């Protein structure tokens, strides 16, 4: 039995990689034609959880809310972090949830996982919705200490304390790395720049051992999978899905083209005289700096 | 009646190292403009309320009044010296629900006051998470990354909110957020459930606001406002996080050190790896740093690991979700010119675009539009630079 329980919340998102993503002629995402995958920030969260497996022998659980096909991303995430429990919260009444209603489902599910969670990880934000709200909202509903933009962490298992580094990036200020300490449990939203480091040979051996184990588990992911509908989860239908969402999308429109801010001179890229002119202009622009 | 329960626009101010983060004054500016027209339109006298947490705040409340706040409610406490999510969430939520404060602000006894009508946060390392947790505590809705706001009466029919009937929502905050592509605007509304079977009130209507979008108002030393000190109720349970150290670091990508920036977007798609190599060549000759558009940071193309981890990263994104820069020379390669991107580069002195499509929006944002595919144009530019030996000057 592990003495450290870790959960990861993940999301099924559009796959923005070339060949899988499809754009409408006006440059917007064609959702119907775009494939789905494990969100890149979710994948980073899974890597952060796997770090706890390698370093502290944590027991890992993963959960997601989504349509039945979202079980494929649970499998993908399991392959990354060797999870022993996969939760899918899937019910038509969950559809259309905003972040508050999503957090309600995730919070209820996490509390149903085996063992009391010590750390819950989420990605920084989804690459489609991009709000970054679901993580902290789930944390607050769980009553966990929330740590955002975490780029590194270490656990002191004996004293049940986490030490973490957070990247603080604010308009008009240099970036700051803040080192903090907090007792477990905590909820961590992992920064996109997070990279796990395994320094010693024995850590790397464990890394490989658990990676292999993760591949085997993921091949048989269904035996780790539990699917919950609203009733099985025991959520109040008034607090989930559209009824539990304070916000609605009222309209979607094309952003009107702004007034031209500059009057462009158009040059023909295949004309060598034009190319010469372009370079002269660029040279001028840079030279102006020197005078300044 | 909901009308008596929710009043005023509360703006959550951000400090870093005891100094105001610029988005705070930008939010106050937009709050001032909105509340002015709101009061005129509805013949009301609602206020812009700045909520300020910190330690040894000194002249900051006065600065906020000069920038448009009618009231500054501040909590000055050693435990509030830097942002920590738990304690900040609790104190802001206390202030937002405090009836005595609301009474002073409203200059009348609002017996039924529950919460603010509207609430603003910055969409950054502080406000993004803080807004999320505060709005769970206040049990209301939140829209993120907003760049346009309006207040209107909205008539609508909604399966859940109105039980399929047409109803009017008065004084509704329309919150516009650009999607990741920068071409679509989604309007988010935070609405009460008027449907009797799921009836619930959702205030404040709240959002996080993209830094650098709104203008602060011209500061006016003579502007009058009132400062209210709030003594926070601090629970040890909310002080679990200890800040051990704070260290300023330089980003690996430092655009300010360069006179020129060459950025690329999805236009590299025909041969991503080869095209990035071409862009590297051009940037090297111009002594330029390399930037990218937001979609590139989502790693849409498979290129080798070293190129991907060097360039397809958020640190290089130019635009509202990345850096705002103003180099002497900005070269946009294969970038269509979505509004979000333009916001990050529009202050550049001289802008060159390389693009095969003369109809793409970037044409209205550049001084020189070189029509052509980057595969063809960049090698010619590189050759010409070598000929003219631009390197010496740059």
Question: Quick summary of this structure?
Answer:
The complex is a heterodimer of chains A (292) and B (394). Chain A has helices at 40-56, 71-81, 99-110, 134-142, 201-219, 230-233, 272-291, and strands spanning 5-9, 12-14, 36-38, 59-65, 85-89, 119-122, 145-156, 161-168, 175-183, 186-190, 225-228, 247-254, 265-268.
CATH topology of chain A: Rossmann fold
CATH class of chain A: Alpha Beta
User: How far from one another are the termini of chain B?
Assistant: 67 Å
The named CATH superfamily of chain A: HUPs
Largest interface: A-B, 97 and 121 residues
Uncertain runs of chain B: none
Number of helices of chain B: 10
Query: Could you give the distance between the termini of chain A?
Result: 68 Å
Annotated CATH topology of the largest domain in chain B: Rossmann fold
Structure write-up:
The complex is a heterodimer of chains A (292) and B (394). Chain A is built from 7 helices and 13 strands. Chain A is an alpha/beta fold. In chain A, the strands form 2 sheets. In chain A, strands 9-8-7-10-6-1-4-5-11 form a 9-stranded mixed sheet, sandwiched between helices. Chain A has a two-stranded antiparallel ribbon with strand order 2-3. In chain A, strand 7 (145-156) and strand 8 (161-168) form a beta hairpin. Chain B has a 7-stranded parallel sheet, with helices on both faces. Chain B has a 5-stranded parallel sheet with strand order 15-14-16-17-18. The termini of chain B are far apart. The model of chain B has no long low-confidence stretch (mean pLDDT 93). At the A-B interface, helix 3, helix 4, strand 7, strand 8 and strand 9 of A face helix 3, helix 5, strand 7, strand 10 and strand 13 of B. Strand 13 of chain A pairs parallel with strand 18 of chain B, so a sheet runs across the interface.
